[in-house]
Write a sequence for this structure.
């Protein structure tokens, strides 16, 4: 598979597993897994890629967006997205609860964003928007341990006080590829009162 087609296939796979499985009438488990058989028969993939292509996409994905397994009951090969879902009712994603900042390498988590949306974030907080979770990282951009959860071109870094947020009823979880996930409060927000600082990534200025 040539590089451009590989990127297109990876994006289509991400969309299907994170957002489109239900509306595309695929059987998806509560743990987010879908059989490869269904994927290869789907109109977006039928005749356009093979099992080998999908295995290569999973193996070479630098952000480890996907996971493969053989279903112990059916013997079928299955795939899922590790995080980023907007599909609800997925309660078996194997997310590890984060109970305190002591379980994090730096004691905080950080969310990357852009100056254009910062005014809204200052007022309302971080929003999960159409997804199930808000995505955060236990490391800053540029750290070699960042696999996923932070875009490389973010302009603003928002650091969250995990312990204070947990005391306020906010839950945090760690995904299989080391992304920290939170549903936020009942409205889907991590409110500004839980921010430790807001840093301009280029200048280092604290914007809080």
């Amino acid at each position: 598979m040539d590089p451009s087609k590989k990127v297109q296939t990876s994006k289509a796979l991400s969309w299907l597993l994170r957002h489109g499985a239900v509306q595309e009438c695929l059987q998806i488990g509560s743990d987010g897994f879908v059989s490869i058989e269904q994927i290869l028969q789907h109109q977006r993939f039928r005749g356009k890629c093979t099992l080998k292509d999908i295995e290569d996409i999973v193996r070479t994905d630098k952000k480890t967006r996907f996971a493969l397994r053989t279903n112990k009951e059916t013997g079928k090969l299955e795939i899922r997205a590790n995080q980023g879902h907007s599909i609800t009712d997925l309660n078996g994603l194997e997310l590890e609860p984060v109970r305190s900042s002591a379980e994090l390498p730096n004691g905080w988590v950080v969310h990357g964003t852009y100056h254009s949306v910062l005014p809204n974030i200052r007022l309302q907080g971080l929003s999960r928007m159409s997804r199930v979770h808000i995505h955060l990282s236990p490391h800053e951009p540029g750290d070699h341990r960042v696999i996923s959860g932070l875009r490389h071109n973010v302009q603003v870094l928002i650091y969250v006080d995990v312990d204070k947020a947990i005391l306020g009823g906010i839950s945090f979880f760690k995904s299989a590829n080391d992304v920290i996930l939170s549903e936020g409060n009942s409205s889907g927000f991590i409110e500004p009162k839980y921010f430790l600082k807001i840093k301009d990534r280029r200048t280092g200025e604290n914007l809080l």
